[in-house]
Amino acid sequence: FVSRLRARENGFCSTFGFSKPLSFSSSSVFQLQRADDIEGQIPCEKEDDAIEAEDRRRSVTDRAYWRRRIHSICAIHRNPDEALRILDGLCLRGYRPDSLNLSSVIHALCVAGRFDEAHRRCLLFVSSGFIPDERTCNVIIARLLDSGSPVSTLGVIHRLIGVKREFVPSLTNYNRLINQLCLINRVIDAHKLLFDMRNRGHLPNVVTYTTLICGYCKIRELDVAHKVFDEMRARGVRPNSLTLSVLIGGFLKERDVETGRRLMKELWEYMKDETDTSMKSAAFANLIDSMCMEGYFNDIFEIAENMPQ
Questions:
Q1: Domain coordinates in residue numbering, the chain
Q2: N or C end of the chain, less CB within 10 A?
Q3: Span of the secretion signal (predicted)?
Q4: Residue with the larger pLDDT of the pair 178 and 284
């Protein structure tokens, strides 16, 4: 029987032109896959060799080429280490990194979640005399703020201002930084930024003041929060529904129900005039959340019954 089976196998192989019987064992499949991988690697290796040859051929003065090259490594291949290796080699040959190079590297590091290194690299570039333009500075700060490490980002801002006196962070970056500082209870530092942005020509807006009021309410500094609210009005910045809702939440946290109810009546009037539906929804949701957190459930049911539509 065995001899007949082998004969059939040999006949099958000879009929279809196979020198050996087909095998579908795991080792055979692995060998086939490995062969495919090797064949796939050959074009990639050739492409890499061609790129390296082109790098050697290009002069350090060909800035357009190196901008594209570093941007491609960072944005497409997402390999900031390779970009930094190339930049280090170029600097040894007299190349000075520009704003686009710095932006590409910092962005790639942040995408990789390496925010601490992104902060350090940015400081290192600036200390080495590679100062980006104002627009790029704001782009980099916005990217670094994604780390949620406001103290580190504030250090970068101070360093940039130190070497580039005319640099002014954008209003959005100021507001984001103030918010992040308030989240870690560094409200005094956040308030200092309000004065700093005003000295640099920015007018704090409703977002700035609302964020700062929320920060003071969080640390139970209601007197200061109310002063910021009064200053806001005195400077011609009209509070919105969310501003009042945040302030009410602060008074409820301190069990000052009387002031909270008085401001609540004012809130209803603001919400009548509020044209932004999302703002009204946010204000109402924040108010209900604050009341739930402090246990004012009976008042919530009363609001549900009597709240003006």
A1: 60-167
A2: C
A3: none
A4: 178
